[in-house]
Design goal:
Blueprint lengths: L1 H11 L5 E4 L7 H11 L3 E6 L17 E4 L2 H11 L6 E3 L3 H11 L7 E6 L20 H13 L6 E6 L6 H10 L5 H4 E3 L1
Parallel strand pairs: 1-2, 2-3, 3-4, 5-6, 6-7
Length: 192
């Protein structure tokens, strides 16, 4: 397949110090990259920007040399779930989230408290079935719960900023919003 073509001829032409993998649930080729890097004495790094499904991200428990996580919660739970060496798990933060919050906060009035909700459409190989992960809930169900909670309180001090994942479709969120009765929708929420 495509991965074998990439791993074989293309990668051999360049002298790498390390490779970085995104650890998506659907990235079966990650294990091939890790094995290729290992056989060529190249360090591999897996960046995990999630707090769930750690084992599912690594086919046949083939882990990179180092794991980078977004926070200590992810670091500790990854270690607990996988028994991966704590010395090789590093908390590095989330550059994308840092940039996003910095950018969006400039657009929200100082008088409002901003709640960021970042969608996570399933990249799980269940067809159009949403993957619910360990806790049995997906992002649309989480968003529904959050909106219902905001509807049950006086949320005039809050602004809900829904940020779409790069592979997400705005219609998916719009369809959900149309089914919910949301007070003061224009004031409360925006979808980026």
């Amino acid at each position: 397949g495509v991965t074998r073509q990439i791993v074989s001829p293309s990668l051999k032409k360049i002298d790498y110090d390390f490779i970085v993998l995104g650890t998506s649930l659907s990235a079966e080729e990650d294990s091939q990259y890790i094995l290729w890097a290992r056989s060529n004495k190249i360090k591999s790094i897996g960046f995990i920007d999630q707090w769930i499904n750690y084992k599912e991200r690594f086919i046949n428990s083939i882990y990179p040399d180092h794991i980078f996580t977004v926070d200590d919660i992810a670091k500790n739970s990854f270690h607990r779930e996988t028994q991966f060496s704590n010395d090789h798990i590093h908390t590095v933060g989330s550059p994308a989230l840092h940039l996003l919050t910095k950018t969006l906060r400039k657009q929200t009035p100082d008088s409002l408290k901003t709640i960021f909700f970042i969608t996570e459409p399933s990249s799980y190989k269940g067809g159009d079935q949403e993957h619910k992960g360990r806790h049995g809930i997906n992002d649309l169900e989480s968003l529904t719960y959050l909106i219902n909670q905001l509807n049950s309180i006086d949320y005039t001090d809050y602004h809900l900023e829904i940020v779409l994942h790069p592979i997400d479709n705005q219609d998916r969120i719009n369809n959900l919003i149309q089914t919910l009765k949301i007070k003061n929708l224009e004031k409360m929420m925006s979808v980026e």
